[in-house]
């Protein structure tokens, strides 16, 4: 498998996206459970049949472009063109010196966001991203080595990883989170996501409130015909409530709901590039 991934990583992005689209449909055909989950999740968001079909192919494209991003030589520039939209917002946030929290859902190429940030801004202000270690030892080793690049650090989704993120923010650095990732039990609240209760992390809001960092939304749009990516930065569609509710549980729910609504607005920009097959509404695993 590693040999095949390395071979694929050296192919042109346009070819990888073509192969990835076929892979996406193959997985869809072979997995009734995946088909049902993708259809159910997309239906909750009001996504029609045309965009659902496009999402099947986009999920496959994401899997093969990830191999290309992970396995490029250390220190080598990104192999494909990256355009920026809203970079001025990020510049202003970095100048404040308060630390920055970048939030992105499972939309487009979220892997390219971290690597593009590290390449353009990392020497000025490093980035630490939160990730959930894979269960497979082989994939976990690949994941850890591939994501560790100049000016880009990783923090596991553990208590030690959370402390690592908070320390980075207190140094005025940047961190990245996927707030639609289902956290372990006890680290989230049930908040509406496209109208249905989804177990939602409270970590993003807690880090923002404890550090005073600036929050921005970011996502990597996958351009057609292998033309590269467009990294899009914007303000959150809905800020955290100020002042927060006095009750701690109510405050956590209000914050999670606001962040979920901001992520919904991002997803609405390109619903075909969201991972509708992700098990967003599952019950959390034990911490």
Could you please describe the fold and organization of this structure?
With 287 residues, the chain is of the alpha/beta class. It is built from ten helices and nine strands. It has helices spanning 2-9, 13-30, 32-44, 49-70, 87-96, 110-121, 137-147, 159-170, 203-211, 248-269; strands at 82-85, 100-103, 127-131, 152-156, 174-177, 188-193, 196-201, 214-222, 229-234. A seven-stranded mixed β-sheet has the order 1-9-8-2-5-3-4, sandwiched between helices. A two-stranded antiparallel sheet has the order 6-7. α7 (137-147) links the parallel β3 and β4 (152-156). The protein is globular, with a radius of gyration of 18 Å. The mean pLDDT is 92.
Largest sheet: 7 strands, mixed
Poorly predicted segments:
none
The strand line-up of the biggest sheet is 1-9-8-2-5-3-4
Encode the helix/strand succession as letters: HHHHEHEHEHEHEEEHEEH
- The coarse silhouette is globular
Distance between the terminal alpha carbons, to the nearest Å? 31 Å
By DSSP (H or I, 4+ residues per run), the number of helices equals: 10
Helix content: 40-55%
Write down the Rg.
18 Å
Proportion in β-strands: 15-25%
Structural class: alpha/beta
Task: Briefly say what this structure is.
By secondary structure, the chain is α/β, with parallel strands linked by helices. Helix content is 48%, strand content 17%.
